[in-house]
Structures are given as structure tokens and as C-alpha cells.
Amino acid sequence: MSIESDIFKRYVPNWKKCKKKYEKLFLNDSFKAVVKISKTGEVSGTVYDIENDDEFLPLRVENNEGSFASKVKNEYENFLIDIRNNYFIKNYFIYPQSNRITQLIIEKYGSYPEFLWEKFDGSGIFRNQDSQKWYAGILDVEGSKIKKGKSGIIEVLDIKLDSAEIQELLLQPEFHPAYHMNKKSWITIILDESLSDNKIMELVHKSYLLSFKNKKIRCSS
């Protein structure tokens, strides 16, 4: 992963504010960073050594910690972070449907995704604020672990449902045995537009109701 793709992971340009090119001199004006944003939102950058009038290639060499190159890299990363924080918008997840479902959950239940695992920083859970219980999770996972023949990283939604409904839904191709959750109580949906947002949110609501401590709240909602 490049410096740019790492820093701008899950961020998209705010085209109302974002320009297509940014430049900055740093380290006593001895280096110049040029950052470009493509029409599709991809970020690329080059750092030039002004004295030598050439690209500073050690920037891309790994394990340069403690060297002068690390100082250049740190200054460049700070510039990228400044661009990201001022001119980009954060997407919590990678794929469009994942972000739409997240926004719908935020709007309806006031639950923001919690990213609890440093090692799995693309996986977030949604918690019922009344009970503190989880009722949904969006996880990034290798596709073959969910569906035979599926390859590459995909995003899935885990939700909690009654066991009888889970068995019925598993007869349909859009539903899969729960990934990393109790398969009797949870089920997995691949967020690849196979199911409509409305249908998914109907099921999310059922999961949300099951997460309450008070059974009366479940019945009245």
C-alpha cells in the first residue's frame, strides 16, 4: 500500500472544496510536495529535492526510520493529512451500499459504527445505546470465506434474527451462514446490491429490536 492510499483509505474528495492539485515547500524550502487528485478521487503525489531538481526516491523506501528520509516522509504525510482533513469526506466503509446502510442506521437509530479491532480496522459494529448490545456489524472479509467462487475483499452485514427466520432466509441465495457470529442467532448478507437497502433495513430493524433489554420495547416498536 502506498503512502497516499494508506492515508486516504475510505476518504473521498469533497468536490465543493477540493482542488485537483496541491503544492507545498517544506524543510526550509529544500523539498517540494506536489499532490494530485484524479477525477475518480485517487490521490497521487511526488516529492522533489529542489537542490538536485529531481524526485526524492528514498521517500518510498521502507524501513528508513531514524534517517533523514524519515523526516521528509513525516513532513509529506502531515501535508497529506492536512489535505485529507480539510478537503475530503470520510466514508466509514469501502463499498457504496455499506456506506448507505451505515448512514441509514445513523439517521434512524443514532448508532455510529465502532471500530474495535486494530488488526481489523475495516470492521465496525453498531450498538444499541439502551442495552449496549450489538445488533449489526459491517465486516470486510475475503469473499471466498462467505461464498464459493467469490474472490477479493468484500463487505458483509451481520444481523441478529430469530432462528426460525434465519433458516428460512438461508434458503435464498442472498443470505449466508453468519460470519464470526453464532450461526443460530445471526445471519450474513453480502453488501453488493443483491438486496435493496429497504429490505436490508427491514431486517436491521428486527435485529435492533432483539437487542433491547426490555421486551415491552420490542413489542411496541
Written account of the structure:
- By secondary structure, the chain is α+β, with helices and mostly antiparallel strands.
- It has 2 domains: 3-90, no CATH class; 96-220, Aspartate Aminotransferase, domain 1, CATH 3.90.1150.
- Helix content is 30%, strand content 26%.
- It has 6 helices and 11 strands.
- It has a 5-stranded antiparallel sheet. It has a 4-stranded antiparallel sheet with strand order 2-3-4-5, covered by helices on one side.
- Strand 10 and strand 11 (186-190) form a beta hairpin.
- Helix 3 crosses helix 5 (197-210).
- The longest helix is centred in the middle third of the chain and has 20 residues, at 68-87.
- The N and C termini lie far apart (46 Å).
- The mean pLDDT is 91.
List keywords for this structure.
30% helix, Aspartate Aminotransferase, domain 1, 6 helices, alpha+beta, 4-stranded antiparallel β-sheet, 221 residues
Q: What's the arrangement of secondary structure elements?
A:
Elements: H1 3-7, E1 11-13, E2 21-26, E3 31-37, E4 43-49, E5 54-55, H2 68-87, E6 88-90, H3 96-109, E7 124-127, E8 134-142, E9 153-160, H4 163-169, E10 175-177, E11 186-190, H5 197-210, H6 215-220
Antiparallel strand pairs: 1-6, 2-3, 3-4, 4-5, 7-8, 8-9, 9-11, 10-11
Helix pairs in contact: 3-5
